[in-house]
């Protein structure tokens, strides 16, 4: 697939729409006080009378399908960003006509995700327990002082996308996280702790 800046922006918009749809279906599950794996039958084997079984089944199915779509879109967006940046670098050459790509930044992890709530903005964005955060918006290891830095970024970015780069199983993964009010606590639905307290 050939990527342009407009194509990447279109993919990001599509991703935002998918995230909104996932949120709406999660709200249906929350209304019925169930998650993705709670039983839909009672101890006697009959459909539960305290929930809308059809509505819950439909919402669960849609969430699974949309999460697959979301994962595919994130991969396309990441590939698109790499392609667009590569095209920009190709246009920049040194006086001898040799392309000189800028050095790739090495984001040293400074915080770790130790819990992610299902259906939360963090979960929808693709954050996983154990992810080590190397970049959270404008915060990197060199300017990170304490968790207040993260909180300030979150509070100033409600309903706006934050670029988050994490280390996961020795791979760098770029995510788009949108802090927003949801049915749970906080704006993210995950717990982030400084790495210094654990690994240093």
What does this structure look like?
The protein has about 200 residues and is an alpha+beta fold. Helices cover about 40% and strands about 15% of the residues. The protein has 5 helices and 6 strands. The protein has helices at about 5-30, 55-90, 120-125, 145-155, 195-200, and strands at about 110-115, 130-135, 140, 160-170, 170-175, 190-195. α1 (about 5-30) packs antiparallel against α2 (about 55-90). The longest helix is centred in the middle third of the chain and has 38 residues, at about 55-90. The protein starts with a helix and ends with a helix.
Number of folding domains?
Answer: 2
Number of strands: 6
CATH class of the largest domain: Mainly Beta
What fraction strand? 15-25%
């Amino acid at each position: 697939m050939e990527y342009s800046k407009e194509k990447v922006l279109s993919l990001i918009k599509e991703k935002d729409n998918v995230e909104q749809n996932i949120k709406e279906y999660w709200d249906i599950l929350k209304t019925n006080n169930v998650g993705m794996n709670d039983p839909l039958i009672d101890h006697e084997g009959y459909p539960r009378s305290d929930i809308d079984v059809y509505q819950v089944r439909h919402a669960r199915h849609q969430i699974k399908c949309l999460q697959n779509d979301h994962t595919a879109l994130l991969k396309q967006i990441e590939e698109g960003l790499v392609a667009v940046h590569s095209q920009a670098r190709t246009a920049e050459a040194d006086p001898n006509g040799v392309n000189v790509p800028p050095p790739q930044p090495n984001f040293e992890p400074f915080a770790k995700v130790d819990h992610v709530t299902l259906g939360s903005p963090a979960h929808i964005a693709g954050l996983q327990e154990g992810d080590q955060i190397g970049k959270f918006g404008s915060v990197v290891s060199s300017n990170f002082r304490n968790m207040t830095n993260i909180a300030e970024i979150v509070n100033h970015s409600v309903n706006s996308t934050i670029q988050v780069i994490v280390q996961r199983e020795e791979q760098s993964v770029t995510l788009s996280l949108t802090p927003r009010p949801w049915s749970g606590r906080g704006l993210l639905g995950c717990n982030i702790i400084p790495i210094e307290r654990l690994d240093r």
